[in-house]
DNA sequence: GCCCAGGGGGCTC
DNA sequence: GAGCCCCATGGG
């Protein structure tokens, strides 16, 4: 199993090349992006991040202090903007109240303590928490998402409705805990999902995994 | 006009 | 624990 997973990783890496995730200028910007990208394409997030930078409030203090309606306006491109404005404020207030706005004090925690604390903040679920842990805190947790489920279901590893935790356990139980590899693997899965393993009409003939995919047997 | 994109929470049973 | 609904932009 380990060899199979590493083989798939190698295939994707050779095809797509390094993905350079997470595109952000700071650890805090990763967190903001992780919340804003919930159920929306990254393009929409970039617009919002630029707005926050222009406004000069892409800081913990800045978001904690800005008017909630104003914040919602600035991130309007990211869908569910009212809820996301609340989420950003909740996270920043948590950092302000417990860590004096120093995100690294939070990130210094042991990985699973950090995960539990992130999950306790309303608006941060498993995928968002794990993205923060891997891409901002740089600890070796495997991020799972809808693409992961779809691709590995079609490859024959998961059921169509496989739950998050069992998918994460599967990867973490069969791969060495390597931050750089986990970083690339998740990003490569997203690239594969976007370009080939799409939900409606998968482009199987061009897919770098088609010859080992159960879904493509015609 | 439709569908879906780098989800999460809340509610019911 | 599963099954539903809500949130509410932008690109193809």
From TrEMBL:
Cofactors: [4Fe-4S] cluster
Keyword check for Oxidoreductase: no
UniProt KW keywords: 4Fe-4S, DNA damage, DNA repair, Glycosidase, Hydrolase, Iron, Iron-sulfur, Metal-binding
SMART domains xrefs: ENDO3c, FES
Superkingdom in the source lineage: Bacteria
InterPro entries: DNA_glycosylase, Endonuclease3_FeS-loop_motif, Endouclease-III_FeS-bd_BS, HhH-GPD_domain, HhH_base_excis_C
Gene Ontology biological-process entries: base-excision repair
Signal peptide region: none
A GO molecular-function annotation: metal ion binding
SUPFAM superfamilies documented for this protein: DNA-glycosylase
Residue span(s) of domain HhH-GPD: 36-195
Family, as annotated: Belongs to the Nth/MutY family.
Protein's recorded name: DNA-3-methyladenine glycosylase III
Organism of derivation: Caldanaerobius fijiensis DSM 17918
């Amino acid at each position: 199993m380990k060899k199979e997973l590493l083989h798939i990783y190698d295939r994707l890496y050779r095809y797509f090349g390094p993905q350079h995730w997470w595109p952000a200028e700071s650890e805090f910007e990763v967190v903001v992006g992780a919340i804003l990208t919930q159920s929306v394409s990254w393009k929409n997030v970039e617009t919002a991040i630029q707005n926050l930078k222009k406004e000069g409030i892409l800081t913990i203090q800045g978001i904690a202090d800005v008017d909630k309606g104003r914040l919602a306006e600035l991130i309007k491109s990211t869908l569910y903007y009212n809820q996301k404005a609340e989420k950003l404020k909740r996270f920043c207030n948590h950092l302000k109240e417990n860590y004096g706005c120093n995100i690294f004090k939070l990130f210094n925690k042991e990985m699973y303590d950090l995960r539990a604390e992130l999950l306790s903040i309303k608006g941060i679920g498993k995928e968002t928490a794990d993205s923060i842990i891997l891409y901002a805190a740089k600890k070796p947790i495997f991020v799972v998402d809808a693409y992961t489920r779809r691709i590995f279901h079609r490859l024959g590893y998961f059921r169509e409705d496989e739950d998050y935790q069992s998918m994460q356990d599967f990867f973490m139980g069969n791969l060495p805990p390597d931050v750089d590899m986990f970083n690339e693997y998740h990003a490569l899965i997203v690239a594969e999902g976007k370009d080939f393993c799409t939900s409606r009409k998968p482009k199987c003939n061009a897919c770098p995994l088609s010859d080992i995919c159960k879904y493509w047997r015609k």
